[in-house]
Structure formats: structure tokens, C-alpha cells
């Protein structure tokens, strides 16, 4: 676990030095959610019904926006090739980089979401379930996104291609997460949605580092 910790700390230090890579997705997240009352309606009854869907869609797009820098700097500096040919476990190194990405992107989104939920008139029960679904699913967004980022690491201006690759894989998470929050507002049972989200997280954690490592090797060849 020593190499995991070292890689995690290194990526966090690099991101802190290059603060725009952190602030741009979060600014996009806050600004985009804030514009919906102006575009749709300021009525509390309308906004509370669609608040979960709004926050979840913008969360996915914010994570997607931040995925471009997951391997980009290491690829340009030649560090990524050294990671691939080193004697250390490449899936473990990728897991460390994904963990750093989630700490810098997923956790701030989780922290900001309750405030934006209040802004969209989401009730307390809905906010609690929103936080729970984000805790379960934002790591999955980073893990699944790492596969797409690995495939297009050597392609310049690949934002649109990354979106086409990753967004279809995000749809089940969006469906179950937004459904859980919406049903919680009406006092309905949501355990099935939470089980599905937890299953997606476990499967992603067990498989995506290996798939991403294979995709990186193919891309660098």
C-alpha cells in the first residue's frame, strides 16, 4: 500500500498546485444548477420535484469535465509510460489516481449538493437520500470514467469522444440515484435502488482498475 499512498499524495499535490483543474468542474456544477430556476420556474413545487434529477445530471457532467486531466499530465510528461513498465501493479496505481480524482471532485460535489438542494427547495428527507446516493455513486463515476480516460489518453481535443464513451455507462447510475431521491420524497421504499448503486460500486471497484490498465497499455502502444 506504500506505492498507493505515494501516488495518491503525488496526485493531490499536483492538483493543488494546478487549482484550475479542481475549480473549473466545481464552478460549472454550481453555476449550472443555479441557472435552472431562471430557465424553468422559480416555483418551489416545480423545482423540488426535479431537484434530484438536476443535481445528478450536473454532477455527472462535472465529473466528466474533470476526467480529461486524470491521465493527461502524466502522459505529456512521460510519467504514464514509466508507470506502465514499472514493476508496481498498474491497477493499484490507477486506483490511487482515481481515488485522488474522487477526493478532489466527488467529495466537493457531495459537500455542495445539500446547499444546492436547499436552493432548489428539496426537503430534508430528499437531501439526506441525495447525499447517500452521491456517497455511493460518485466513486463509481470516477472509476468508470477512468476507463474512457485510458482509451483516449493519446488523443488531443478528445472531450466529445470521452463523453460519447462514458455517458451511456453513467445512465444506470443516474436512473437509480434520481429515482431513490424522488421516491424518498413521497415516503416510498428505496432499498432496491440503494442496493443497485452499491452493487455498481463494488463491481466497478473490482473490475475497472484492471480494464483501465489494459486500455492504457493498448493506448500507449
Keyword list:
single chain, 221 residues, mainly alpha, 9 helices, globular
Query: How many DSSP helices?
Result: 9
Q: Work out the helicity level.
A: over 70%
Rg is: 18 Å
The parts where pLDDT drops under 50 for at least 5 residues are: none
Kindly report how far apart the N and C termini lie.
28 Å
Number of strands: 0
The count of domains is: 1
Strand content: under 5%
Q: How would you spell out the order of helices and strands?
A: HHHHHHHHH
Structural class: mainly alpha
Provide structural commentary.
This protein has one domain. The protein is 85% helix and 0% strand. It is built from 9 helices and no strands. Helix 2 runs antiparallel to helix 3 (44-66) and helix 7 (124-151) runs antiparallel to helix 8.
Amino acid at each position: 500500500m506504500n506505492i498507493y499512498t505515494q501516488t495518491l499524495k503525488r496526485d493531490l499535490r499536483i492538483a493543488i498546485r494546478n487549482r484550475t483543474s479542481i475549480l473549473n468542474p466545481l464552478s460549472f456544477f454550481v453555476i449550472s444548477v443555479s441557472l435552472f430556476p431562471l430557465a424553468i420556474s422559480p416555483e418551489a413545487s416545480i423545482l423540488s420535484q426535479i431537484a434530484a434529477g438536476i443535481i445528478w445530471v450536473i454532477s455527472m457532467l462535472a465529473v466528466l469535465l474533470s476526467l480529461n486531466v486524470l491521465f493527461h499530465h502524466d502522459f505529456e510528461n512521460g510519467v504514464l509510460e514509466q508507470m506502465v513498465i514499472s514493476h508496481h501493479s498498474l491497477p493499484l496505481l490507477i486506483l490511487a489516481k482515481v481515488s485522488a480524482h474522487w477526493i478532489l471532485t466527488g467529495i466537493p460535489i457531495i459537500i455542495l449538493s445539500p446547499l444546492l438542494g436547499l436552493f432548489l427547495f428539496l426537503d430534508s428527507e430528499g437531501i439526506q437520500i441525495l447525499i447517500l446516493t452521491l456517497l455511493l455513486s460518485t466513486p463509481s463515476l470516477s472509476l468508470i470514467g477512468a476507463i474512457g480516460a485510458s482509451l483516449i489518453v493519446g488523443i488531443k481535443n478528445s472531450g466529445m469522444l470521452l463523453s460519447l464513451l462514458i455517458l451511456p455507462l453513467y445512465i444506470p447510475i443516474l436512473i437509480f440515484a434520481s429515482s431513490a431521491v424522488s421516491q424518498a420524497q413521497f415516503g416510498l421504499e428505496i432499498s432496491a435502488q440503494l442496493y443497485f448503486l452499491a452493487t455498481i460500486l463494488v463491481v466497478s471497484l473490482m473490475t475497472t482498475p484492471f480494464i483501465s490498465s489494459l486500455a492504457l497499455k493498448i493506448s500507449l502502444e
